[in-house]
Amino acid sequence: MNMHPATVPSTDNPLLDYLGIRLASVGDGRCTFELDLEPRHLNRQGSVQGGVTATLLDAACGYAGLPAGPDGTLGHAVTVMLTISYLSKASTGRLRATAQLTRAGKSLYFASAELTTDAGVLVATAQGTFKRSRTLPEA
């Protein structure tokens, strides 16, 4: 499944929406999120807060392994482990977290991601393990 921006499903994630993180593409074991940096995303030193970086990478890795239903809605998963390497600072412009599925089993899957600036600076990398969760029927 390869979705174009016009058909990308909603993140269905209030935190991502609150932070202004947009789902740019998802499908075929890949996912890209984007964020236009604003002062609210920065730490006291004026660079992107580590938690914002972690959130972008976690979401990209997690969504890369989500199955899509026939109507295009995405499944659910939880993060089991996430390792991040912070490599460079960023303080302005657009950040892009791009992830790809590296291996998938029945319930666990593994993904890796890179966070880059529009200028191509590698800000951080991540590797994670995720567990697909079953959605409980509504009562």
UniProtKB/TrEMBL annotation:
It comes from the Bacteria. Keywords: Hydrolase. Transmembrane segments: none annotated. The keyword Transport does not apply. Residues 46-123 form the Thioesterase domain. It holds the Pfam family 4HBT. GO terms for molecular function: fatty acyl-CoA hydrolase activity. CDD domains: PaaI_thioesterase (cd03443). Belongs to the thioesterase PaaI family. NCBIfam families: unchar_dom_1. This is PaaI family thioesterase. The lineage of its organism: Bacteria, Pseudomonadati, Pseudomonadota, Betaproteobacteria, Burkholderiales.
